[in-house]
Design a protein that fits this description.
26% helix, 7 helices, 11-stranded antiparallel beta sheet, globular
């Protein structure tokens, strides 16, 4: 872990920020020194933590005013619960591959724009999901799901590690490759039986995938919920039934070819989900589980996070 403080006397009292950085995210366009320099020269007192190093959580022993998460969706998912527990406003500097959270939340600004606006920008509320199983609790910001996407996440992680492809490909190339692999996997992936309650409404059947989403973009930038509101206190639940495999693969082919089309999904909204039976792998954000322990209860923690809203239209 590395610590750095600004000594630039640009304000009578410097705003203290925590900079949570994943140095291995995406194509690593900004290293630690450059990131720290940007904020220090902008007049901030900076506490730096590399989230790929053990003990990064010790940053929270200090007090600070705002946080910047410089990384991808995995970094956002890791840091967000800590910020929610301490009511610390944050913004995202997207450095990952998919950046689903940053894109959904409108956090796609360059570092210079973030530096210029972080101190004066207002905030808005964003929800978190709370997952309770017989073994404990987990928190998610993006989505929880079962079936195809969970299996895809597990296999893509193994493939990237085996081929060491992350350093050789751009983010766009990785996303294109991911869509191609997801389409291939969807051809033979078995449908899974799932029984659940959406609020008080039962839903049961065989699904190719089912996702409870807080963000509009999921996985390799799948725009399944274009009009999502991550602060409305509810989840968007989407699923693909047994008769939609062909249409789903055609949709993925369109995306792979750069053609936007409407995803062949069922969708509804709810505030709470109870998984009674699941015969499929599951994921909570980027964490994959071979099986889901049941019963599993998913609740919405409304307005758990304070998101710093950088000025619209500035890129």
């Amino acid at each position: 872990m590395r610590w750095c403080w600004s000594t630039r006397p640009s304000r009578s009292k410097l705003m203290k920020i925590a900079l949570f950085h994943n140095p291995s995210a995406g194509n690593r366009p900004l290293d630690a020194n450059r990131l720290i320099r940007h904020f220090a020269e902008g007049g901030y007192e900076v506490i730096y933590a590399a989230t790929d190093q053990k003990g990064w959580e010790s940053v929270f022993r200090n007090s600070f005013d705002r946080a910047v998460i410089a990384g991808g969706d995995g970094t956002v998912s890791r840091v967000a619960p800590w910020l929610a527990a301490r009511n610390i406003p944050f913004c995202i500097l997207p450095l990952g591959t998919a950046n689903n959270c940053a894109k959904t939340l409108g956090q796609t600004h360059a570092v210079e724009v973030v530096v210029a606006n972080l101190c004066s920008a207002g905030t808005k509320k964003v929800d978190l999901g709370i997952v309770t199983t017989p073994r404990g609790h987990r928190v998610f910001i993006e989505s929880l799901g079962i079936g195809l996407l969970a299996q895809f996440m597990a296999e893509m992680r193994m493939l990237e590690k085996k081929k060491s492809s992350r350093d050789r490909l751009t983010a766009a190339e990785r996303l294109t490759g991911a869509l191609k692999y997801l389409r291939l996997l969807a051809k033979e992936y078995p449908e899974s039986f799932c029984e659940l309650l959406l609020d008080d409404k039962p839903l049961a059947g065989n699904f190719l995938l089912l996702e409870a989403a807080n963000m509009g973009l999921i996985g390799p930038n799948l725009n399944l919920i274009p009009h999502v509101n991550p602060g409305d206190g509810s989840f968007e639940v989407v699923w693909i039934g047994t008769n939609q495999r062909k249409e789903w693969r055609e949709y993925l082919k369109d995306l792979q070819d750069g053609v936007e089309s409407t995803p062949p999904i069922h969708t509804t909204r709810c505030h709470q989900i109870v998984f009674r039976h699941v015969d499929a792998p599951a994921h909570i954000d980027g964490k994959v589980f071979v099986t889901m322990i049941t019963p599993t209860v998913v609740r919405n923690q409304t307005g758990a996070l304070d998101l710093v809203v950088i000025g619209e239209g500035e890129r």
